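seq/struct pair 1
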Amino acid sequence: MGIFKSLKDGKGFDLTLTAIPFTFLFFLSFLPLVYNVLMSLQEVDMFSLGQVIRPFAGLKNYYEVFSRPEAWLVMKNTVIFVVASITGQFIIGFGLALFFGLDFPGASWLRGLFLVSWVMPGLVVGAIWNLVLSGDFGVLNYLLKSFGIIDANIFWRSDPHYSLWAVIIANIWLGVSFNMILLSVGLAGIPGDLYEAAELDGANAFQRFWTITLPMMRATIGAVISLGIIFTLQQFDLFASITSGGPNNSSNVAQYWAWHWSFKEYDFAKGATISVVMIIVVMIASVIYVRSTRHEVRG
């Protein structure tokens, strides 16, 4: 009765609101994270997966993973995938945010159409881009040949030189709308008086963008890039539906490699090892995100 009376009077209500999400995070985020780190230091097979006490392996799994001949190719592909995806999503998203910031007739519903890609499941996006990137009858090859950019068809999904870029193109398309929306919100928060004063002082459009827009968007840009890194490292569906990491690991990345070790080779310890490395990268990106939005929260 004392607990209910405390909630009714308002005392302890804040503590209850804090305890509910904390309990959720503890059991569904923190404990699985600890379990994953523990698995990376143990010898794990299908028969001992449900146990906690298993033979201790130390850093053996880390050594064996990074001693694999494909390990550094996978890591290089991961870096290329993240950097290229984030760069493409940010540049196109920022351009669209500036474009829709002109507030022309129909801008609102046209902006809404760009959200279609963001709400689509990854496997659906992968199926669509399988058709677009088809070597025999794909739309992309048709357009490139129509403009005279290529003479022969490119087999985007099966050519080792293009397979990774096939997934990058699809991922850029998937994430552009997310970048556009966040950057549009940041642009809307810049006072129009600053642009008017700069224009009166003789600043051209580029000077206004460089001295007003970019400095005022610093926190938003940091948040967009940090979240983009996290979401890109989580991207699995496009690899599963477009290239399956092939051919010959040419499009394999860390997240798909971790899945392959765990659910194809059934070596859960090595899968957990790769996941731990990715978790460290995501934690760094999360710290950058929190720091970039700190002054916004205080404001």
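seq/struct pair 2
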Amino acid sequence: MTNHQTSIKDLILRPFLAATLGVLIGGLFTLLTGNSPGEAFRVLISAGFGCESSSNCALLTTLQYATPLMLSGLSAAVAFRAGLFSIGQAGQMILGAAAANWIASRFTIAPWIHPAAALAVAMTFGMAYALIPAVLKLYFQINEILSTILLNYIALYLVGFIPSGFGNWIPESARLSTIAYGTKLNVGFFIAIGIMIIVYLFLWRTSAGYEIRMSGQNRTFSKAGGIHTNRSIFLAMLVSGALAGIAGGIEVLGVHYKFVTNFTGLDEFDGVMVALIGISHPIGIFFSSILLGGVRLAAMTGLSIQMGIPRSIGGMMTAVMVIIMGADGIYTRIKTMFLCLYELSRNIHNKIKQRVGDKPTR
């Protein structure tokens, strides 16, 4: 259908334009530090997406950084699709991480089953914690933005009641296998990709996913059409919490091997940023998580260490991307400008080609 094709075009074009403008504006600020924007861009690409060898490959580390971003971005996107602006991914991840560490460190289970059991419990804890803002929203009319922000901080205290053996390393039987020597990239990356496919099929190929999306677009119309909107919102928040809980579990089982609250390359609201840049679509989230993970890695190891450029430049680039992705009016004007420039350059090229072709030969 035409609308579907248009949305796919925007899904590809919008993050590209956002990234391009983010880098250009970052280059202007780089000038203020006395460095060359061209050199900074080269270092950004090399330190975030370069790969000289299997033992010296920044791209593999970027994929490691992108794994929790994918899942937290999917978590935010599912809630957004249901019409809830949930930003509680950080708290759900923390509880998921603590739950995974509990199962991994306190129980002796056969390998392969051990990490699966730990992730299942992490998913359950994330789901349970995500239900709280849904109940507060539907039955007490408490804004989900306020409740999820506060629940993020409450989660830091709740983990103290989980017998996780904080600070103790988890056994080998519970760890997710590393897939690239010299990095912490693990099978959690492929788990995230598999989950991304499942979420896409769930939201766009099932009746339950359709009801979630319709409830988010127009709750009154959905009720009139016979959709149980409250049930759809509860289901969306269950899925959202499950995704965030799994993200926290993968960080413990595949990266840190013990309970932590500072996850790899992830800040409190990164799930929201990834979802916005990716237009709350699994395909967009996949690319935006890799983009954000690479920019964050490059800002830390490339711009900051190699060139002495503040790491905040990378954060500023990300902020510009989010602003462009979140503002439809800005994106529409920028897209129109780029399309006009493209048409102008193509017309000039055709005229030059025509004149050269019409030029008499001697």
